[in-house]
Amino acid sequence: MVQKAKILLVDDRPENLLALEAILSALDQTLVRASSGEEALKALLTDDFAVILLDVQMPGMDGFETAAHIKRRERTRDIPIIFLTAINHGPHHTFRGYAAGAVDYISKPFDPWVLRAKVSVFVDLYMKNCQLREQAALLRLQLEGGRPSADETKESAGLLAELSARLAAVEEQAEALSKQLDEAADAAAVATAAHLERKLTGLRRALDALEPGSGNGVG
Questions:
Q1: Distance, CA of 217 to CA of 206 (rounded, Å)
Q2: What is the pLDDT of residue 50?
């Protein structure tokens, strides 16, 4: 049974958290609430998350401060952050969001479909990363235990083929999303597309390295 990804929702207003849960429930993943920056950082100490939706305007520790703490921690620095804000102070405010480490910056009210589609891409990337780590660990165990049997080799090849097909599907989805974002011609489009490209390129290289006879994989 495939484990669900966790999505962290950070907002000090309960009604906003309810709205986010309603929008993202269709993804069938685990949604975790945090009503403050401090509560979000506490959740990040013990759980792994695919993506963080972070409200900018919060009392006490605001979204920018929270993001800075997240990016300083080795455990959490690579988790994608999507900033959500009800106000728009122009390019300088948006730039501050990207400078804090956000991969996207969305103003409220936002299109539910667009938000769900963007979150879905990061969830898929997270799941592929998990699958690649598990497969790499399996191959290492096989090699440490001696030459893998024919059945084990066949099983590994089958798993790699399945992972490659799933990654190809995510690459296709990300390409389609990038084209949609390109039409917006804003900073969010550039940042999101660049982040996805780096993630997908890294995943594809890692997967190719695990292919038998690649010369770059384990063993």
A1: 8
A2: 93
Q: What is the 3-state secondary structure (H, E, C) of 120-177?
A: HHHHHHHHHHHHHHHHHHHHHHHHHCCCCCHHHHHHHHHHHHHHHHHHHHHHHHHHHH
Closest CA relative to residue 23, chosen from 131, 113, 156, 93: 113
Beta carbons within 8 Å of 71's beta carbon, 6+ residues apart = 77, 100, 101
The answer to whether 26 and 116 have CB atoms below 8 angstroms apart is: yes
The answer to whether 84 and 108 have CB atoms below 8 angstroms apart is: yes
Express each pLDDT in 25-49 by its tens digit: 999 999 999 999 999 999 999 999 9
Give the CATH architecture of domain 6-125. Answer: 3-Layer(aba) Sandwich (3.40)
Contact 85, 108 (CB under 8 A): yes
**What global pTM score does this model have?**
0.66
Dump the DSSP string for 41-110.
HHHHHH---SEEEEES--SSS-HHHHHHHHHHSTTTTTS-EEEEES----HHHHHHHHHTT-SEEEESS-
Beta strand pairing call for 6-10 and 30-34: parallel
